[in-house]
Protein 1
Amino acid sequence: MNNFQYKKEITVTTALEAVNSNENAAFIAGGTNIIDLWKYNITNPELLVDINGIDELRTIQELEDGGVRLGALVKNAATAYHPVIEKKYPLLSKAILAGASAQIRNMATDGGNLLQRTRCYYFYDPDVPCNKRVPGSGCPALNGRNRMHAILGNSEHCIAVFPSDMCVALAALEAVVNVMGPNGSRSIPFAEFHRLPGDMPHLDNTLQQDEMITSIDLPSNHLYKHYTYLKLRDRHSYAFALVSVAAAFEMDGNEIKKARIALGGVAHKPWRNTEAEEFLKGKTATADNFLIAAENVLFGAQGRGENDFKIPLARRAIVRACMMALNPETQRPGAGPSL
Ligand SMILES: Cc1cc2nc3c(=O)[nH]c(=O)nc-3n(C[C@H](O)[C@H](O)[C@H](O)COP(=O)(O)OP(=O)(O)OC[C@H]3O[C@@H](n4cnc5c(N)ncnc54)[C@H](O)[C@@H]3O)c2cc1C
C-alpha cells in the first residue's frame, strides 16, 4: 500500500503551485495511463494533483488564423467526433479512433495522450533492468524480445517506441504544444516535443517536471481532402501499432503540391522525414514515387532481430497509405489497393 496525498485544483496557477510543492508530485487527467503505471509500481507519486476541475482546458476553439486550439483536458473521443475537427482535420479524427477502445477514448485526454509512456514489456516489469525506468540499469530489449520495438532513431540505451496514434497525426499536421510553468508560458513545435532516446531514455519529451500542457494548436492547412491513417497491428482493435502511417496531401490534379508523412510504432517519437516530403513535392502521385519516398523515410532503419520485419512492413505501409490518401473512398474497411 502506497500512501499518497490527493488535491483537486480548479485553476492552472494553483495546479502548478501544487505540483511544484513536492518533487514527487504528478498531475492526473483521464488517469488511463498513470493509474496503470502506479499499479505496476513503475511510478509512485506522493502527491496526485487532479486537474479535471480546470474548465478552461476543456474547450475546442477555432482561431482567427483558421487554426484550431484543443484544450489539454478535451477527451480524445470529444476531439475525434467534434464537427470542426472532422471537417478541418479528419486525419486527426481517424488516428484517434484507431487507438485504444471507445471506453478509454472517452476517459483519455488530449494532453495525457502526448505524455503516455512506452508499452515496452521490460519497462512495465520492475523486476528487470530498464534504462527508461532506472537510468543506467541496462536494456534487455536490445538482444531480447523486441518484436514491438524501434527500427529508427535508436540508441544503444533504448529501443522502446512511443505508442500514441493521435501524436502521429499531430506530427503530420505540425501541431504546436502550449505549456505553462512557473516562469510563464511557452510553445513547443510538435517535432521538438518528443525526444529520441540517446543516452537519456528516461526522458520521453521536452516538457519540464514543473510544467503543464494547457493546449495543442492545429495550424490552418488544406490537408483535409487527401489523407489517411493506416494502422497495422496484431489485432484489428484494442492493440498498439506495429507500424502506422499518417499520410496527407494537397493535390493539383494528379500532382502533389504538399506532402506529409509520419510514422508510428517505429521510433521513440512520431517519425517524420521532411526530405521524403520534399521529394514528393511537384511529383505525380504514383506508387513508384511513393516507394522512393518510403525508402527515404526509412533511411538508416535497423532491426534488432524479432522486429526486422517492421522495415519491409513499414515500406509497404507507406506506399499503401499514400495511395489510400489520394482517394478517401478507399478508406472504407477492407477497401484499398493491396500492395
Ligand atoms: C488498454 C489500453 C489500450 C490503449 N491503446 C492505445 C492505442 O492503441 N493508441 C493510443 O494512442 N493510445 C492507447 N492507449 C493510451 C491512451 O490513449 C492513454 O493512456 C491516454 O491518452 C492518456 O491520457 P490520460 O488523460 O488518461 O492521461 P493520464 O493517465 O491522466 O496521464 C498520463 C501522464 O500525463 C501527465 N499529464 C496528464 N495531463 C497533463 C497535462 N495537461 N500537463 C502535464 N502533464 C499531464 C500525467 O501526470 C501522467 O504522467 C491505451 C491505453 C490503455 C489503457
Protein 2
Amino acid sequence: MAKEHTDVLLIGGGVMSVTLASLISRLDPSRTITLVEQASQLATESSDAWNNAGTGHAGYCELNYTPTNADGTVSIDRALAINERFEVSLQFWCSLVEKGLLPEPARFIRNVPHFSWVQGADHCRYLRHRHVALQDHPLFGAMEFSEQAATLADWLPLISRNRSVFEPAAATRVAHGSDVNFGALTRLLGRSLARQDQCRVHLGTQVCDIRRDKAGWELTLRDTATSATQVLTCSFLFVGAGGASLPLLQRAGVREARGYGGFPVSGLWLACNDDQLASEHNAKVYSQAPVGAPPMSVPHLDTRFIDGKAALLFGPFAGFTTRFLKHGSRLDLPASVRPHNLRPLLDVAAGNWPLT
Ligand SMILES: Cc1cc2nc3c(=O)[nH]c(=O)nc-3n(C[C@H](O)[C@H](O)[C@H](O)COP(=O)(O)OP(=O)(O)OC[C@H]3O[C@@H](n4cnc5c(N)ncnc54)[C@H](O)[C@@H]3O)c2cc1C
C-alpha cells in the first residue's frame, strides 16, 4: 500500500513549528506541509502564554546580552544581533497581517515599555556605560537613561514605592518594547495554516517513531484518542517538539544527538491578577543577575496581557522535574539516559543544582 507523503513534516505545535511552516508556505506554496501535534490544541507547552514571560526579546532590557569586557567597556554585539532578528519577526508578522493571514496585532502583541533596573553604585555605573554604548546605534536611539529618584518613581511607581533598601538606583527605558502572547500567536498562525490547501494540521496525533529512508524520513503517527497508527513519509523533517525533541532525535538515530542530555529545569512564576496593582505597572523590568549566573536567574517583573486582561508576573524561579514536557512522563529523564550522555548530564546537574 502506498504511504501518504508530505514534502515537509513538522513535529510539534508550538511557536517554532508554526513559524517555520508559515515561512515555508509563503516562500514556496507548491510544497505540501504537515504539522503534527499530540495535544488536542496548539501551544499547550512552553509557547502557552502562562508558561513564558512573553517578552518580545529585542535586547532592550536583558542585561545578560551586554556583558562587560575585560577592559571595562560594554559589549553590545549580541544585543544588536537580537534586536535585528526581532525586527525581522515584527516585519514578518506585519506582512501576514497585511495579507489577511493574521488578524489585528492586538490579538497577540501589545506595546509594553522595556526597562532595565539596577541598584548599587557598580550596577548603576554599568547601566550608564551600557546606555552610552547603545544610544548611538539607530536601533537603540530611543533608549532613555535616568538615575533621578523622581524619574524612576514616575517610570516604575510600583517598584520605587516598595523599595526597602535605599541604595542608588538607575534604569533605562525603551517605550516601544512589546509583550507577545506566543500562545495566541501560535494558535492564530496554526489556524491560518489549516486554511491553506497545501497545509495540514493534525491535532491529537503523536509521532512515535522516526526512521530514515532513501528519499527522506518515514514516521509512525498515533491517534491519541483511538491509538490507531498511520505511516507517513516526508522529504524534510523539523523536530519542534520542545523538551521532547531529544527522545525523538535519539529514536531517529540522528548521530548529532549523541552526547546530549536533557536536564529539565523549569521556570515558575508568581502571578498577580489584582487589577489595582496591575494598573500601577506597565512595564517589562529586567534586573541584574549575579555575574556568571544563567539567563534563567535574571529576575523580572512583567506586565502581561492574557485573554485581554492585564496581569503581573514575577520570577522566574527554577523548578526541577524529570518530565521533559509539562504533560510529559516522570520517566522522560531516566529513559533518555545513554552511556554517551551520562557524563554531560552529571556535569549539568552539578552546575545547575543551586538554581533550584
Ligand atoms: C520560564 C520561561 C520564560 C520564557 N520567557 C520567554 C520570553 O519572555 N520571550 C520569549 O521569546 N521566549 C521565552 N521563553 C522561551 C519560549 O517559551 C520557548 O522558546 C518557546 O515557546 C519554544 O517553543 P517550541 O515550539 O520550541 O516548543 P513548545 O511550545 O514546547 O512546543 C512543542 C510542542 O511539541 C509537542 N510534541 C512533543 N512531542 C511530540 C510528539 N512526539 N508528537 C507530536 N507532538 C509532540 C508538544 O505537545 C508541544 O506542543 C521562556 C521559556 C521559559 C521556560
